[in-house]
Amino acid sequence: MLKDKTAIVGIGQTEFSKSIDSTELNLACKAIKNALGDAGISPDQVDALGSFTYEETPEFEIARNLGFGNLTYWSQAPYGGGASCAAIGQVAMAIASGIANVGVVWRSRKRGDPSSRMWSHTDEKIFDHWKWSRPSGLVRPVDESSMLIRRYMHQYDYSRESLGAVAISLRKYANANHEALMQHKFLNLEDYMEARMISDPLCLFDNCLESDGAIAIVITNLDIAKKLQNKPAIIHAYSQGMNKEHQLMTHYHGGDPLESSSYVTASNLWNLSDYSPKEIDVAQIYDAFSPMIPFSLEAYNFCSKGEALKLINDGLINIDGELPVNTSGGSLSEVYLHGMNLVTEAVRQIRGSATSQVNNAKLALITTCDATPNAAILLKGE
Amino acid sequence: MIETIPIPGIEDFDKVYWENCSKNKLTIQHCGDCNEARFPPRHMCPICQSISHDWKEVSGDAVLWSFVIPRPPLLPVFDKQSPYVVGLVELVEYENIRIIGQIQTNSNIDSIKIGDTLTIDFKKINNEISLPYWVKK
């Protein structure tokens, strides 16, 4: 069993910026050094690694730069925004099963430059599943997400004003976070309504930031965790999820396209957990695009289908709401690093050191991309 | 970035689909054993795991499930077309078969609504590929 056997004991990051004059390897090394320093663990104790299949810094380069010892486990998780919790969960399982004792998971990414966007590398001939959509001009992830939110808004009678509440709530958290790229940029409903469209009905502020940076975390078994300086963020439950007939980013075929792989992840996660949605103190919900927050809140059973945007407009996800969400500003307003900033923020909430701290936060949910095969982790304090 | 419209690469399991599109016919792949319809086309029937399949022509009549209006920056070929409408349409013959295609707007984007009833047409890209698109009835 994985339950309560491992914990996140260290978090580290680089500066976040639209453009950093450094390599991804250099940034990865700095973030990992910071995470190990935060944990109070010597690099030569690390024996497990976890990363994203999209990560371009190889394990051996990381290990020989940082001076790791002999490694006994490493793995990679696929599907970009769906990967962070899977990479962490897999290392946690390896540690819980005794294959290794100290794991590092990292993501380093220079994405500020427009040429780094994956869709801009679309080939003249498409042989993967995107052959069924890109030739018609549905090119970017934002277009693919926009298709679902227009349907949702039609089905449940919402306006663009209602959707604006998501970006505005997250921006307020970023305004309080000195690490957030959008710390000094304020956003109100008027700004939102006047913003340029990227993929109608989604506007600029519904999109995540384009940024450079790296984030790393350290995972150990609970025996080691209890001897360290930080309050451990215990990995209570973990699951991946991919639903029937799933198609990456364009899950339009099969049953209801609004019923994403998150429904599978959520159902298994709650089954494996001792807790129910109403007991969760704070959630970090993957937000490459703003619709993923209401979609995920419904999938994780915090409310019924069609209800999330109304509750968000009533204040659900704000700091004084019932379920504060993306309290560092998230991918929309802090930094976009494939959701790894959501992991570090969940750990800060458990430690009590977040810039927008939820009082006495004991249970923190972390989710990954609603539109891909994905994963989630439930963290708890002692 | 590519300057041309990205085109679907033809594979064994969808060759007939694209051949029929070039003849202005929309055909849906069915299992050769259990007769289950599936889209997009693929190698194997997810119900009975048979690799045998055949193709049945449908009317192309459809209902608009949802749509988006992509705005630049896009691939250059689509920057030039923008604003255009891409729809996800539900075939009238099969409620769970949905296909992506452009929706003809006749320069009146605001007239496009979810639930619109549509009929199919095809745009020839080259000798091998014609892309389906939909027009308001």
Helix and strand topology:
The complex is a heterodimer of chains A (382) and B (137).
Chain A: E1 6-13, H1 24-39, E2 48-52, H2 59-66, E3 73-77, H3 84-96, E4 102-110, E5 125-126, H4 141-156, H5 160-175, H6 189-194, E6 197-200, E7 202-203, E8 212-221, H7 222-226, E9 233-241, H8 262-272, E10 282-284, H9 292-299, H10 308-313, H11 330-333, H12 340-351, E11 363-367, E12 374-380
Parallel strand pairs in A: 2-3, 2-4, 10-11
Antiparallel strand pairs in A: 1-8, 1-9, 4-8, 6-7, 9-12, 11-12
Chain B: E1 7-8, H1 15-22, E2 26-31, E3 37-38, E4 53-58, E5 62-70, H2 76-81, E6 85-91, E7 98-103, E8 117-124, E9 130-136
This entry's quaternary arrangement is heterodimer
Order of helices and strands of chain B: EHEEEEHEEEE
CATH architecture of the largest domain in chain B: Beta Barrel
The CATH homologous superfamily of the domain at 6-112 and 210-226 in chain A is named: Thiolase/Chalcone synthase
Please state the average pLDDT score of chain B.
Answer: 97
Query: What structural category characterises the helix and strand content of chain B?
Result: mainly beta
Mean pLDDT score of chain A = 97
Largest interface: A-B, 42 and 40 residues
Major sheet strand order of chain A: 3-2-4-8-1-9-12-11-10
Total domain modules of chain B: 2
